[in-house]
Amino acid sequence: MLFIVAICVFIVSFTVWLKLSLWKKIRRRLFPDNKHSVFNMLRDAAEYNFVGTSVNNSLYIDIVKYFCKKSKKFRHYPLFTYWLCGVKLVFIHKAEAIKDLLKEKRIIEKSTFYNFMKPYFGTSVFTCSQWKERRKLLSAGFHSTMLKGYVTVFNEHAQKLVEFLHEETGKEFTCVERPLSLCSLDIVCESILGVKIGALQSEAREYVSSLDRLSDMAMSRIWKVWQWPDFIFHFSKAYRELLQHLRIAHGFSRRECNRIYPPVPIFGRNITEEISICGYTIPKRTTVVVSPFLAHRDEDIFPDAEKFDPERFLPENSAHIPECAYIPFAAGPRGCIGRVFAEMEVKILVCHILRNFSLHSLDSRDQVLPIIKITLQSSQPARIKFRRRQQ
């Protein structure tokens, strides 16, 4: 343990020294209050007295207060600087400075702090280097013409929110953040995905609660500088809580379902050039068939493969699954382009169904066998008994 602590201290010290050295090289740019010394850095750290608090959102309250105070202090300047551990931050808080930044087309790369959000959101349109292509594809769905078509959905859910709030009138007070968030979620899902999830009317809101907590944890890590290195964060209580909420938000049970019943059970490739696969030479003009359905039943990788075991995809277990051992939607350049959309759809549908019904299958897995067509299908209709949950 002492060895790990010593390494951490060395890495942090070296990082601080390196950042400070690099910053001194540009000191001629003369930022406001730009004292290039360790004492200036320690002063900022001393002012950063809210770093350990997080009860009842006090961390975020103190952060806002601190930087409001800082902004007032430098109100005659377009920007000010701040040391956050070994990182020198430049805050711009005047319109002219913001305009100069945003009109600079070469400055488009996101801050490295966005890396802390990858476990929550993945390499989405907000953090991915291919953001231009993805934004171009997504922009069509948010064109003004398309948005006009969503007005009906907005009105429908606004009316539901009003009905919800009517029931709250008999109470002494109502915390409006949650119903507003749930109403927004309903609108987004129906408008973008075309799926009605009824989040506002549902009582089972574990998924939504996990998303809220994940958002809090992402921001908290940014301000708790000792959690920046992944190898330190992975030993923290916050990381264990993160895994718990990610399992709910990402749904590892869904992954096990896709392992046993992959949507794309088989696909082929035409070999255009002679290649070698595991020491075997595959000649040109050969058709190679890949079967995720079979690959997912490899006992060397998935012991007792026919058993439904969601724990295979817990982080500590999935780390041992080799690349391409789990490919429910194929893989590579020709992999299913709608994979993310399909996964989102499943999450929303399952969330909606389980919130409203209890399910019981009338047939065992031995009776409903999978068959391979273009997609994986069942040999006979799956009979499920639905019962409305008690509200």
UniProtKB/TrEMBL annotation:
Pfam short name (any one): p450
Gene Ontology MF terms in the entry: heme binding; iron ion binding; monooxygenase activity; oxidoreductase activity, acting on paired donors, with incorporation or reduction of molecular oxygen
Keyword terms of this UniProt record: Heme, Iron, Metal-binding, Monooxygenase, Oxidoreductase
Kinase listed as a keyword: no
Record: residues binding heme: 336
SUPFAM superfamilies hit by this protein: Cytochrome P450
GO CC annotations on file: endoplasmic reticulum membrane
Keyword presence, Secreted: no
Cofactor(s) required for function per UniProt: heme
Family stated for the protein in its record: Belongs to the cytochrome P450 family.
UniProt function note: May be involved in the metabolism of insect hormones and in the breakdown of synthetic insecticides.
Family matches, as PANTHER family: CYTOCHROME P450 FAMILY 4, CYTOCHROME P450, FAMILY 4, SUBFAMILY B, POLYPEPTIDE 7
Protein name: Cytochrome P450
Organism: Caerostris darwini
